[in-house]
């Protein structure tokens, strides 16, 4: 069942991720009083990018070529670890949640390395900004995940969700705040879209084009979808089915979709109502959340 | 007989204190050397008195040797050194005369008071020899501290050694000959070496002012 | 009769060298010091727990004396081998130098084997007088100044020791009789002596000989004399002269090793160690730095003496090692001075410099490390003392290794240097390393000596 | 066991005899390489079976799992560094100096691992310190090298003094229990009967002594100076193995010889936390490539100490399984760090070999000419930042997992959270390291490094890869260490905890994860080998500016982050990035002390003004005081 579950996970995530992006674009357009593109527009974009002719940067390392593929691969492996529809993820073991953190971080780190490998100084600036944010973001993520593991007494996502669904705790609620901020941060929305913003000329993607660009964008979407799923899993664990029993499973997958759309809606509204930060402001803005995440560990130990 | 000798001893010792003040305070080096000669002569007399009182025959020898070295040799060499360096009058000392007198008085009084505490069991057959030897010693030190002239410092050293020798003679009069000869030889050798160095100083540095000798610091 | 022969050889050497030519004089000096080295080595090997006495007890050969005599003759031998390389003198000074060097040797050796407390004083004073012209050999203002201070301060200081000696003698005369002039007799009957007078006398003696040993408030002559003397002479002065006075201090201290005397000695030791080590920080002149290091090491040795127990044993061992390494440091620095004139330091000289300096600082394989450790274990009960002690050793270690690296490294020449410029310091460093790695024989001698005197 | 020693000693002697520096160079490094291979053989032999050897003079030797694991690591690192050095050392002179110190350095490190006697341990420890000092000051004509050497020398000797003091305290106790002996076994016996206060003092002294050598904050300040000062192959050895000998010593002493003590573990954890934090954020700021790597070593030592400290405190409180896993994680990270850090230092060395520069602000774009070196450095960087399928990930992940699940010691989960964050910082500064040197517009035209140098690096890179995909290769012998401690290894292996990486009970997830990892690595290889550029090349887009005016300097990579973390850089008023300004604890710990001592020195030397009268007066003042004391007493 694990194998099939894994395949289902992969399939769902790969399918849904661009749709969510399209949904976000639609919502944003509506907020701007535009009609906006169709929801599947992002899918069309990706397919188009895949078909396009590839142009390489002149002075580049081999990593520049392969990093999009690797990034996607890591994001996909991360999708295996996250429970979708069932409390037990397809690839579950003690410490899996930390592996998840690492896979996602590595996926973006590889993109950063790859973009600097293109030899363009602007990508370097983008990469350095991205990693500056990631440092704080990882801290927040780690803090909240450790909180959850302390509360649940386990390092498996499966056990954590199971426990949270039966006995909710205040510390968990506190830990959700930095986690949510991190998920928001990783989905590259205003005000944290500094390293790869639409109106920005510098950024990690500046030298990527064609298939590579498509792969990276796709991998970013998958990453944010996986993270959003993690947030949903930990925030409202009740919708998850206990096992792969078909009816419950399918219901909970539908619930998952709805929750994702809801989350995207919220994020997009926040996104549209905020202005962009300068990088230094963004970094300083994240520090309080870092503190909150470490506070939540203390709360967890206090048994709150 | 013994009583008289003791009185004589005390009398002579008291004169030694006066001579010691003279040695320090006289600005003319030759006069100061003569004062030293006088003091050494009294010291030799003290030695012979000790010899009489204790009937230690080798104290006579000591008398003779101190007569030869301290009364004749050292002043002679000192005067020769003043001639050699051409400095008859010493360099102006650190302290003015009155202050200097005050210090000496204080040293004399305090040592007479303190000595019984420091050397309580060294009761001697020779009245007040220990305080006086200490006075000579300390005044010598005081002279060395307060005078700048190199030759004067040598004189003060000699003076100080007089004190030490008086101390030695009045307490360790039974020590063997070799010891006394050794100690005297050392003393004389030290004085001669210092004088030689003083002459060298005059020749090389051009002055006997030891305050000028402060090139080596820290 | 070995002790007398040990003495005779340098005395004869000094007299003979007056009438010889340049080259023969150097050889004569080397030869005489070599003979006394051989003799003192045999003496060291043959030394017993019960000291042998000669000339109706005036001369003795015990463990302590033999050890220091061995050290003296070794270092004087090394210095005399080194001198022809280093010294560049005109005829008159040449004669003076070799004459006085051997005379100095003679007086120091005499201190080691004298048993008569007055004669100890006489010979310690004689070491000053015989070495003052060695210090002032250059004859320029600074060296004369150093010599002047040296002889004046030491003479005055030693007169304090004479006071102490007289007090001791008078006390002994009453309680023991005529033979109380001998140190061995005093040791044997120390319980008979009047305790308070004994204490006072020993304090005076320590203060007096402390001037010569370079303990803190009395050390002022020491940096001047060391820095102005020609380097081989500095090596002898710092290597063994202060050991002679330390020997005197140790002998008299052993008469009354308790109560106020030991705490006073400890106090002197601590302030000397702290002062010496901290004063080293500011020195730019290496020879002054080494001089302050001598102050520090004498302080450490005094701490050991004052602490008692194994501290005494290790302080004697410390003095032995310090002598070896300090002379090595001076001689290697002499090599650096020489080669600096030619523009750079050859690697071999730099090696000897770094080696001797860091070993002197207390780097492990050397014996000095072992002795410092031993002394530390003896003072470890008293926390404040131990802390001050550790501070001083750390500071001196840092300063010495820093200056070794500053002076020894970085200005290398590929050229070869004169053999004696580096082999001599390396020899004495090696002996110290050997003593550090296998200290049993020396410690055994010291232990027997201490057992012999009770 | 003895053969490598003989070979190395022979090498040292030969290097003294041979005058031709070229032959000498090849000979020294060749002999070292061969003996390192032998050391690997010895280590592997030790893993398979215990070996004990007793020589005269108390020179007992033994190989248990712990020693063997470290031996193998030493062998691998030493072999690749020696291979690398054959070419690298050509740019240096003074081969005889190098030969003696290099061979004795390896020899000392090897013997430290196998001796079982405290005296010889200290002896070889000292030999290692001295020979490494000689290697650090190899370029002693430079002022900063001498300074670094001095600092290294003094700090490690303070450490050695502490170690010796502790061993002597233990040795004293062996007299009391009647086995006056310095071998580890009798010291261990003695420590059981020691009064607890003395034992605690021993612990403290040993901790300080070893932590100095590991370069743990706050005793680290020698490390970032000494590593850049040394030639790069030596830095690789220093960072790759020498600082690990202290880890070995900590494990040996605190787990095997002395009774395990809880607070020692906590101290180790604390210093580990500090090291990883400060090492990480200081590395972020560096512009000197080797200095950056040195701080990265401090950071990684933090991870190792965290693992070992967690192991110690857990084992001491009776959590046998978690504790032994934490210990294994610590050792595994030691192994991994040895591989990737040596690789990174060697790559920095290759850059120095070709350009002579360490300043990352002026370097750039070397990847165009030094393709292989660039790729190898990339593997090192990715491995160090913990990208899965490379080895850095596995051990870091194990450390996080075990600390995050040690709920009984509340500090540990917090450490885990911090460690994860620091890991992101690692990625950040290694990105800076790699990209500012190897990407961008080339700063100068250079040639690729010689094959031998590449080969030396490649060996390490291969190990980074293998240990990343199949960490059980290293973990199996490491778990035996816990077995030596008396914990059944089978129990540990049965814990699903380590599931994917140990041959435990085969579960679906185990297999699938291994499958996934293998797949990922295969994917990586395939893309690396077969993915070809599309053939269409374009100038990088410079947003319309003149390309020659553009360069993203290393010093401006993380300016904003550094500004945000300003409080962590201890009281630096304003971060000036253009200069080589050091956020160094020295400024706050060492320099004030040195300054104060200088002032005291000035003060106490004030009376020494050269006046003989003054000296006399002082002497007599002291004398009067003494007399006063005598009178007062009586």
From TrEMBL, chain A:
- Keyword check for Manganese, yes or no: no
| Residue stretches spanning the membrane | 6-24, 63-85, 97-118, 130-155, 167-185, 220-240, 246-270, 282-302
Q: What GO CC annotations are associated with the protein?
A: plasma membrane
Annotated membrane topology is:
Multi-pass membrane protein
Keywords, alphabetical: Membrane, Transmembrane, Transmembrane helix
Name the InterPro entries on file: ComplexI_Subunit1, NADH_UbQ_OxRdtase_su1/FPO
Q: Where in the cell is it found?
A: Membrane
Entry keyword Transferase: no
Just give the chief location class.
Answer: membrane
This one is known as Formate hydrogenlyase subunit 4
The organism of origin for this protein: Candidatus Methanodesulfokora washburnensis
TrEMBL record, chain C:
Compartments where located: Cell membrane
**Which keywords has UniProt assigned to this entry?**
Cell membrane, Membrane, Oxidoreductase, Transmembrane, Transmembrane helix
Transmembrane region(s): 31-47, 59-82, 118-138, 150-170, 201-222, 234-254, 260-279, 300-320, 349-371, 383-402, 422-440
Stated membrane topology is: Multi-pass membrane protein
| Keyword presence, Glycosyltransferase | no
**Gene Ontology CC terms:** plasma membrane
Could you confirm whether the keyword Transit peptide appears in this record?
no
Give the main localization category. Answer: membrane
> Where do the NADH:quinone oxidoreductase/Mrp antiporter transmembrane domain residues begin and end?
114-395
Q: Name one GO molecular function term.
A: oxidoreductase activity
Put simply, this protein is called NADH:quinone oxidoreductase/Mrp antiporter transmembrane domain-containing protein
Please name the source species. Candidatus Methanodesulfokora washburnensis
């Amino acid at each position: 069942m694990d194998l099939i579950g894994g395949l289902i996970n992969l399939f769902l995530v790969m399918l849904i991720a661009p749709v969510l992006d399209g949904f976000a674009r639609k919502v944003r357009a509506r907020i701007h009083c535009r009609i906006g593109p169709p929801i599947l527009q992002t899918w069309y974009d990706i397919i188009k990018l895949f078909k396009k002719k590839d142009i390489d940067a002149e002075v580049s390392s081999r990593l520049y070529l392969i990093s999009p593929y690797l990034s996607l691969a890591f994001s996909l492996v991360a999708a295996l670890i996250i429970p979708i529809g069932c409390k037990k993820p397809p690839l579950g073991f003690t410490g899996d949640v930390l592996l998840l953190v690492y896979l996602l971080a590595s996926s973006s780190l590889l993109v950063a390395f790859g973009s600097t490998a293109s030899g363009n100084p602007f990508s370097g600036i983008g990469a350095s900004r991205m990693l500056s944010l990631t440092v704080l973001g990882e801290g927040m993520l780690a803090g909240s995940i450790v909180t959850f593991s302390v509360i649940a007494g386990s390092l498996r996502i499966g056990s954590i969700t199971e426990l949270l669904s039966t006995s909710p705790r205040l510390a968990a609620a506190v830990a959700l705040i930095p986690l949510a901020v991190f998920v928001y941060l990783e989905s590259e929305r205003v005000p944290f879209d500094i390293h790869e913003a639409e109106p920005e000329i510098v950024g990690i993607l500046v030298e990527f084009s064609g298939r590579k660009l498509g792969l990276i964008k796709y991998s970013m979407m998958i990453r944010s979808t996986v993270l959003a799923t993690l947030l949903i899993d930990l925030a409202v664990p009740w919708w998850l089915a206990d096992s792969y029993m078909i009816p419950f499973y399918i219901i909970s997958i539908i619930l998952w979709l709805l929750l994702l759309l809801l989350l995207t809606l919220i994020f997009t509204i926040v996104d549209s109502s905020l202005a962009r930060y300068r990088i230094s402001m963004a970094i300083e803005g994240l520090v309080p959340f870092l503190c909150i995440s470490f506070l939540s560990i203390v709360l967890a130990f206090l048994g709150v | 007989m013994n009583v008289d000798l003791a009185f004589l001893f005390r009398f002579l010792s008291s004169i030694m204190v006066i001579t010691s003040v003279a040695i320090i305070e006289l600005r003319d080096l030759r006069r100061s050397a003569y004062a030293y000669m006088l003091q050494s002569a009294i010291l030799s007399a003290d030695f012979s008195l000790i010899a009489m009182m204790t009937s230690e025959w080798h104290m006579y020898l000591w008398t003779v040797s101190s007569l030869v070295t301290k009364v004749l040799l050292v002043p002679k060499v000192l005067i020769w050194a003043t001639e050699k360096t051409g400095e008859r009058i010493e360099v102006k000392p650190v302290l003015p005369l009155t202050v200097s007198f005050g210090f000496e008085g204080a040293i004399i009084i305090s040592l007479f008071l303190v000595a019984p505490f420091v050397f309580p069991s060294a009761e001697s057959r020779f009245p007040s020899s220990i305080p006086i030897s200490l006075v000579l010693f300390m005044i010598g030190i005081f002279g060395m501290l307060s005078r700048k002239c190199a030759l004067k410092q040598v004189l003060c050293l000699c003076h100080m050694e007089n004190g030490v020798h008086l101390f030695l003679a009045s307490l360790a009069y039974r020590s063997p000959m070799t010891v006394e000869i050794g100690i005297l030889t050392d003393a004389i050798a030290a004085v001669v070496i210092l004088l030689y160095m003083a002459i060298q100083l005059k020749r090389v540095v051009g002055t006997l002012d030891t305050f000028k000798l402060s090139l080596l610091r820290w | 009769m070995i002790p007398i022969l040990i003495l005779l050889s340098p005395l004869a050497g000094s007299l003979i060298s007056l009438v010889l030519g340049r080259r023969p004089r150097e050889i004569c000096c080397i030869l005489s010091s070599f003979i006394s080295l051989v003799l003192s080595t045999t003496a060291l090997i043959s030394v017993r727990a019960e000291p042998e006495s000669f000339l109706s007890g005036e001369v003795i050969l015990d463990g302590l004396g033999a050890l220091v005599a061995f050290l003296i003759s070794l270092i004087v031998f090394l210095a005399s081998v080194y001198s022809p390389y280093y010294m560049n003198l005109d005829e008159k000074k040449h004669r003076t130098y070799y004459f006085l060097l051997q005379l100095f040797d003679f007086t120091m050796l005499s201190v080691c084997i004298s048993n008569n407390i007055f004669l100890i004083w006489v010979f310690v004073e004689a070491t000053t007088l015989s070495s003052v012209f060695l210090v002032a050999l250059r004859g320029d203002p600074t060296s004369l100044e150093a010599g002047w201070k040296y002889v004046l301060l030491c003479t005055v200081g030693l007169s304090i020791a004479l006071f102490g000696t007289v007090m001791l003698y008078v006390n002994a005369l009453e309680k023991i009789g005529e033979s109380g002039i001998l140190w061995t007799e005093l040791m044997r009957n120390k319980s008979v002596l009047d305790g308070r007078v004994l204490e006072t006398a020993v304090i005076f003696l320590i203060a007096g000989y402390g001037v010569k040993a370079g303990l803190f408030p009395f050390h002022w002559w020491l940096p001047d004399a060391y820095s102005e003397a020609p380097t081989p002479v500095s090596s002898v002065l710092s290597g063994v002269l202060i050991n002679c006075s330390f020997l005197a201090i140790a002998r008299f201290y052993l008469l009354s090793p308790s109560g106020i005397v030991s705490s006073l000695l400890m106090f002197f030791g601590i302030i000397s160690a702290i002062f010496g080590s901290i004063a080293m920080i500011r020195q730019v002149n290496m020879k002054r730095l080494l001089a302050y290091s001598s102050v520090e090491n004498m302080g450490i040795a005094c701490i050991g003496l004052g602490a008692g127990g194994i501290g005494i044993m290790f302080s004697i061992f410390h003095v032995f090692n310090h002598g070896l390494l300090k002379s090595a440091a001076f001689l290697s620095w002499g090599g650096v001075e020489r080669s600096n004139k030619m523009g750079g330091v050859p690697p071999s000289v730099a090696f000897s410099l770094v080696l001797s300096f860091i070993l002197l600082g207390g780097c492990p394989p050397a014996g000095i490390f072992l002795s410092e450790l031993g002394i530390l274990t003896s003072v470890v009960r008293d926390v404040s003392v131990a802390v001050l002690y550790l501070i001083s050793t750390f500071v001196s270690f840092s300063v010495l290794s820093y200056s070794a690296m500053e002076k020894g490294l970085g200005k290398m020449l590929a050229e070869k240097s004169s053999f004696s410029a580096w082999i001599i310091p390396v020899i004495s460093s090696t002996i110290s390393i050997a003593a550090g790695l296998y200290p049993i024989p020396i410690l055994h001698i010291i232990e027997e000596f201490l057992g012999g005197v009770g | 066991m003895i053969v490598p020693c003989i070979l190395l000693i022979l090498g040292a002697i030969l290097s003294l005899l041979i005058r031709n520096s070229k032959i000498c160079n090849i000979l020294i490094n060749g002999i070292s390489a061969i003996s390192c291979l032998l050391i690997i053989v010895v280590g592997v032999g030790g893993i398979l079976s215990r070996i004990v050897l007793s020589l005269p003079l108390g020179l007992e030797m033994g190989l248990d799992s712990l020693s063997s694991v470290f031996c193998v690591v030493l062998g691998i690192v030493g072999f690749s560094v020696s291979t690398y050095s054959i070419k690298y050392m050509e740019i240096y002179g003074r081969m005889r100096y190098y030969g003696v110190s290099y061979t004795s350095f390896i020899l000392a490190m090897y013997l430290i691992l196998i001796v079982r006697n405290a005296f010889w341990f200290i002896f070889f420890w000292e030999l290692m310190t001295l020979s490494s000092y000689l290697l650090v000051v190899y370029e002693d004509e430079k002022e900063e090298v001498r300074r670094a050497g001095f600092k290294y020398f003094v700090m490690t000797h303070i450490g050695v003094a502490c170690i010796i003091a502790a061993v002597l305290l233990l040795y004293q106790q062996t007299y009391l229990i009647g086995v006056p002996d310095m071998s580890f076994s009798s010291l261990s016996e003695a420590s059981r009967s020691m009064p607890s206060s003395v034992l605690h003092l021993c612990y403290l002294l040993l901790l300080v002594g070893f932590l100095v050598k590991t370069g743990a904050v706050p005793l680290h300040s020698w490390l970032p100076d000494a590593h850049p000062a040394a030639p790069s192959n030596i830095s690789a050895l220093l960072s790759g193995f020498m600082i690990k000998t202290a880890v070995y010593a900590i494990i040996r002493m605190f787990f095997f010889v002395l009774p395990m003590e809880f607070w020692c573990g906590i101290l180790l954890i604390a210093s580990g936390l500090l090291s990883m934090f400060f090492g990480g954020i200081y590395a972020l700021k560096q512009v000197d490539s080797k200095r950056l790597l040195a701080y990265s070593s401090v950071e990684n030592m933090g991870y190792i100490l965290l693992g070992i400290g967690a192991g110690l405190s857990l084992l001491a409180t009776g959590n046998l399984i978690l504790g032994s896993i934490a210990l294994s994680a610590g050792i595994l990270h030691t192994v991994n760090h040895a591989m990737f850090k040596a690789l990174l230092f060697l790559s920095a060395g290759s850059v120095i070999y070709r350009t002579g520069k360490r300043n990352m602000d002026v370097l750039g774009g070397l990847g165009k000419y030094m393709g292989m070196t660039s790729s190898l450095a990339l593997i090192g960087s990715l491995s160090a930042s913990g990208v899965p399928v490379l080895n850095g990930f596995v051990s870091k992940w194990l450390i996080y997992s075990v600390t995050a699940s040690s709920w009984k010691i509340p500090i540990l989960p917090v450490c885990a959270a911090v460690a994860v964050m620091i890991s992101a910082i690692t990625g950040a500064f290694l990105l800076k390291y790699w990209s500012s040197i190897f990407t961008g517009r080339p700063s100068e035209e250079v040639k690729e490094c010689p094959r031998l140098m590449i080969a030396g690096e490649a060996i390490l890179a291969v190990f980074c890869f293998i240990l990343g995909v199949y960490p059980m290769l290293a973990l199996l012998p490491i778990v035996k260490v816990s077995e030596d401690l008396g914990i059944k290894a089978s129990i540990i292996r049965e814990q699903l905890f380590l599931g994917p990486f140990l041959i435990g009970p085969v579960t679906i997830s185990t297999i699938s994860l291994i499958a996934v990892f293998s797949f990922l690595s295969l994917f990586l290889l395939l893309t690396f080998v077969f993915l070809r550029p599309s053939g269409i090349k374009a100038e990088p887009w410079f947003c319309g500016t003149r390309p020659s005016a553009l360069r993203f300097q290393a010093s401006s990579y993380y300016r904003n982050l550094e500004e945000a973390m300003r409080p962590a850089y201890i009281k630096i008023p304003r971060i000036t990035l253009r200069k080589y300004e050091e956020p160094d604890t020295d400024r706050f710990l060492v320099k004030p002390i040195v300054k104060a001592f200088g002032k005291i020195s000035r003060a106490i030397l004030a009376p020494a003004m050269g006046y003989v009268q003054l000296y006399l007066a002082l002497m007599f003042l002291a004398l009067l005081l003494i007399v006063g004391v005598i009178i007062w007493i009586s």
